[in-house]
Amino acid sequence: MTLVRILSALGGLVLLALIVWAMATAGQSLTEAIAWLVSEPWGVVSLFDLYLGFFLIAVLIWVLEPNKAIALAFILPLPILGNVWAAVWVAWRLAQVVRGRVSAG
Fold first, then answer.
1. d(C-alpha 45, C-alpha 67), whole Å
2. Which of 6, 11, 21, 35 has the most neighbouring CB atoms within 10 Å?
3. Which of 51, 55, 53, 62 is nearest to 97 (CA)?
4. Residue 99 class from Cβ within 10 Å (0-12 exposed, 13-18 middle, 19+ buried)?
5. What are the extents of the domains in the chain?
6. Which residues, other chains included, contact 85 with Cβ-Cβ below 8 Å and sequence gap of 6+?
7. C-alpha span between 48 and 43 (Å, rounded)
8. SS (H, E, C) 45-80
9. How many CA within 13 A on the CB side of residue 82?
């Protein structure tokens, strides 16, 4: 389980680095990139896939996180912070979830 938590954290860090790289080298704003993405059918599919994933991890966080304030702190930023933020929750809580001992403190 520790390996999965480490890989989740590393995956989140790699994704964050890729986001920074894309912002620095893309030569277009995020709005322009989204406009380009939604102009293509596979771009629409990719965005739907992304937001479906956000919804599914949000459901899991809500169901598995006993402290609803913490759950909301992870769910509400998901559409903006994305899977970098989801990886933080997984790395932090996965072992406790698997053992069935997620606690409010």
1. 33
2. 11
3. 62
4. exposed
5. 2-99
6. 12, 74, 77, 78
7. 9
8. HHHHHHHHHHHHHHHHHHHHCCCHHHHHHHHCCHHH
9. 12
